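A brief tutorial aside. Many learners find it easier to grasp structure tokens once they have seen a single protein encoded end to end. The record that follows does exactly this for BolA-like protein 3. Read the sequence first, then the structure, and try to relate runs of similar tokens to stretches of the chain.
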Amino acid sequence: MLRTFGKVLEPVRRRLFRAVGSLNGEGSVYEQNRVSKEEQLTEALKKKMPGITFISVEDISGGCGAMFEVSIEAKEFVGLSTVKQHRIVTETLKSEIAEMHGIRIHTTAPK
């Protein structure tokens, strides 16, 4: 019975191994996807807000890329309420947020 169960799970194991396996020594597919998603979010924000003085985008989902924490300090936030600052960020990342489970946003204006 256990042997049959192992045979049933073999295709799943193979796919999982391919998904997290190493690619030319450059890290796993997961690692490459996570970094590229963080970079993608960072670039989208920098493009929309050239006055960014600090930005940090981090995958906090445990590796699946479903939840990110974004911290931004930008000149565009001067004189705006926190709600308006967050609206700028969510509007900028609208299409990316649609693919996420969640996002944490921290914004400040430079002093």
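Self-check: The longest strand covers residues 52-59. If you spotted this yourself, you are ready for the next section.
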